[in-house]
Please model this.
Amino acid sequence: MKSVIVYTGKDLRRMREEGGCGHWTASPIRVEAAEYLVCVRNRREQWAAMDYPHGVAFLIAQITRTKPSTHAARITIEFSSYAMLDIADAWQLLAKGQRFPVAYLETDELFRRLQLKQDELVWQQLTGDPVSLQVAEPAVSYAAAPAPDRGKAPSFSNTIAEAKSKLAESLGIASEKIEITIRL
Model:
């Protein structure tokens, strides 16, 4: 089974207020199939919590489900129990320093790399009343989007490569694993 690793500036208090860990561009199906969420501190944003040094894994949580985020086309990862961690250089250990802030790893490999033992984790229940959140609407309605110019033919090789790249990023997989078939 897989686990999800996120590079976040948010602390536990903010996650509790927002009803989970968000706002991620990730596949809800893939995240919901995962067992654990590991949060690694990203202090590169001005608003980031300063409770842990940059790159430290500070929390592991048991994923319960995802919900739409307040930001369009993103998700929030919900969890009900968590354990606090303090593991330096975790983003490098788990995601090899990748730029995209969501990574996936087999759970056994995650525990091995972080030198964690499940029976030694001190699990706590996430308590508190999460704020009721409104789901964001797309900035532009699909119906209002301009129609493509049929006058000139698009460069299909660039269009397909761009589509594969965007799909791969949103699904958290390599673009080489995506095949696009066009049937006429």
Notes: Residues 156-171 form the longest helix (16 residues). The chain has a mean pLDDT of 83. The CA atoms of residues 62 and 97 lie 23 Å apart.
